[in-house]
Amino acid sequence: MNPDFWRGKRVFLTGHTGFKGGWLSLWLQEMGAELTGYALPAPTQPSLFDCAQVSSNMTSVIGDIRDGDALTRAMQSARPEVVIHMAAQPLVRKSYVDPVETYSTNVMGTVNVLEAVRKTPEVRAIVNVTTDKCYENKEWVWGYRENEPMGGHDPYSNSKACSELVTAAYRNSFFHTGRASERRVALASARAGNVIGGGDWAADRLIPDILDAFSRSAPVVIRNPNAIRPWQHVLEPLRGYLTLAERLYLDGASYAEAFNFGPNNEDARSVEWIVQRLVDQWREGASWQQDTAEHPHEAHYLKLDISKAGARLGWHPCLRLDQALQLTVDWAQCRLQGGDLRAFTLTQIQNYQQLAVAQQPAQHA
User: Fold this and answer.
1) How much of the chain is helix, strand and coil, in % rounded to 5?
2) H-assigned helices in the chain
3) In which element (H, E) is residue 35 found?
4) For a surface tag, which of 59, 102, 120, 306 has the fewest beta carbons within 10 Å of its beta carbon?
5) Residue range 155-160: average pLDDT?
6) What global pTM score does this model have?
């Protein structure tokens, strides 16, 4: 990923008020992009969007991606060259409570974004961010590749599989760069696993629940200590999305595909491993216990094969899981101490970017 590429680029980002969207907004601002965000109000209080003053150096439009007309007006006004679609209903457990909202947001929201792109002639590249949960999960011990069947046991996972199918249909029907009669727009999807980092207060998410309990010196209650997930710091897949968007803009059709972004195999760890590491890093007032109540189905084993991103994009994880957890703890403790969270978040981004640059020659040697 070349930071100079983004200087002055007009970027339209959906979901900028969310956790991942907030981090990506700050990174794009840091690189000098002309950024417009479109999203509902921040989904939690507190939120990274407010704590890190995410909107202070960008155009922030509060709107619903289910409102296709409003979305199209906002996109046409921004005249973006690159669109990154991250707005979603992102929670598995909430999808059981409100499946209609989940499908309308994650499926028709994607349709509305792609329809808005069709009506915005300046757009050259689109990345639709979905999830590792879009795959038909067979609880395999090996990682899923991009050509594995779509599926999804719960409404959230299934809605993201549907979003992938919508993406493929629009690429084949409207953005086919091989036909002279079609728009020269390169469309790809990005699939990432469980991300961690400072500023995530989403309900029923492992790391936010753990850090919230630790900050109150209360034991955190863990539902599935043996569940294994591909954990990684939020900046890792974001670098993948930016790298993919850059390649789509510069090279077009050859990158208009699906890509997985996840950690190395050794960092696909159990929930129990994660919580115990955080107990050790937080130290005073940190403890956990297992929840014995009955809960809706969640996958117990899920891992991604990231070899395609390495071979095609030169993207590789930079951080080990211990480092990612420490960055997350550092951010939470900065907040508890009343620090400047925008400055602290930007510093973590800058340090990570330097680390990625420093590791790049060794990766391609």
Assistant:
1) 50, 15, 35
2) 3-6, 19-30, 48-51, 68-78, 92-97, 99-103, 109-118, 155-173, 206-215, 235-251, 271-282, 307-308, 321-336, 341-364
3) strand 34-39
4) 59
5) 95
6) 0.92
